[in-house]
# Entry
Amino acid sequence: SQDLGLEACGVELREDGSIVVDDYYQSAVPSIHAIGDVIAGPMLAHKAEDEGVAVAEIIAGQAGHVNYDVIPNVIYTQPEVASVGKTEDELKAAGIAYTVGKFPFTANGRAKVNRTTEGFVKVLADTATDRVLGVHIIGANAGELIAEAAVLMEFSGSAEDLARTCHAHPTLSEAVKEAALAAGKRAIHI
# Structure
């Protein structure tokens, strides 16, 4: 956002240089909207894309919205690391009681055949409601697997919902189901 003359136009900037926007992505100047890397939040292409769609909908008079609680994060390393939602540290700091279901890829048939057994899936669910609050995956294709958790969380799904959903066999996604089962202390394949 540097050297764009934004302040001269009346656009308010934070100390870090990001543009201050309201819930409709509108800056202090009504005709200027901002999204993506120049506003607060993670610098992720998929976040910016969703914000762009939301702004277009808002400008068109529709109800544009981005659920920032379910934006997945992926680190494209070997193995991949992916997460969506809250971490255990965040839940502890907020005083939220939660259960943990964890399942290692060493116990997953597809991972064994592919020789990609490094890592695990961890599901964090609210103790009282069983609503999934966070999912963390380290392993092969974690960036693909995390989408299932994001969809579930977008619709306020529970660990039980995930555990009761039939998953194809043999697939890496079965580890996600098994982690959800483990949150209820019922993992089948470990």
